[in-house]
Amino acid sequence: MAKAAVTRSIRDDHQKNFLKIFNGLTGKHSRWEIWEDFVTLTAIEISNSTDKVNATERTKMYQTIISKYSAKERDGMAEMLAEVVMGMEQNPDQDFLGSLYMMCELGNDHAGQFFTPYDVCRCMVEISGGSDPAAENAGFFSVSDPACGAGALLIAFANLCRRKNICYHNKVLVVAQDIDFIVGLMCYIQCSFMGCAGYVVIGDTLVNPATAYDKRGLLPAGPQNRIWYMPFFSTDIWYMRRQIAQMNLLLEPKGEPAKIEKADTKPVNLQKSIKNEPKAPENEPLNETKTGQLTFF
């Protein structure tokens, strides 16, 4: 039954080939371990192409993972990556990795992850999607998904921009976050292959949400090792925008501490000042009329 369900869910030959190679690697390693390692290795390869700050630590992680596999198994993972690239190039309007994740029932085995079907995401984007003209006049606008999963909503939004002739590579800043490391990297891989510009933050949105030093999200704050920058975020136009954002931060007026002004005159002797203080005038006596009413006259 499970195999039949998977077969019915396969959309194209690239997913079919991916699953064939993926299942061929099982035996020595569990299905989840292969998936986890494949996603991590792919994300590190993408990240190291532009992010030199985290490259050293991530390269160590890469070497630790790849050392578990033989040369033949490494070739199999390279073929799996090729199928992902060709599948997304042939049909960019899909959640390639997310659908495979659910086909393999990995969501049931790991943290109870269940992804929204891509057709539902596309419907949601069509209903609520669109750009702000004021934001477009400012050069770009941002889209954020604080529980991104494999990135289905962001992929659907990118395809909506394409249908509206909006160059999302230069006009849209993508900010995504997910608490799950592997799932967040799945979003990172797919958004990177889509040519999106932005970053994915790994962390709990409720406890430690993604923040930025600037108002537009160009300078993400927090530990850099939990941020995965998409390659298009390093293109000239986005690099220039980040530099301008840094300059604006430096030029912003900062509140000066309150100054305590020194008195020009020396403090007077309190006792002397009390003695020299003029006495208050004595109250005039009040007269009482025959009826008992008080009067000054």
TrEMBL record:
One of its GO terms (biological process) is DNA restriction-modification system. Residues 108-213 form the DNA methylase adenine-specific domain. It catalyses: a 2'-deoxyadenosine in DNA + S-adenosyl-L-methionine = an N(6)-methyl-2'-deoxyadenosine in DNA + S-adenosyl-L-homocysteine + H(+). The keyword S-adenosyl-L-methionine applies. It comes from the Bacteria. Residues 286-297 have a biased composition (Polar residues). The keyword Nucleotide-binding does not apply. Its EC number is 2.1.1.72. This is site-specific DNA-methyltransferase (adenine-specific). It comes from Faecalibacterium prausnitzii.
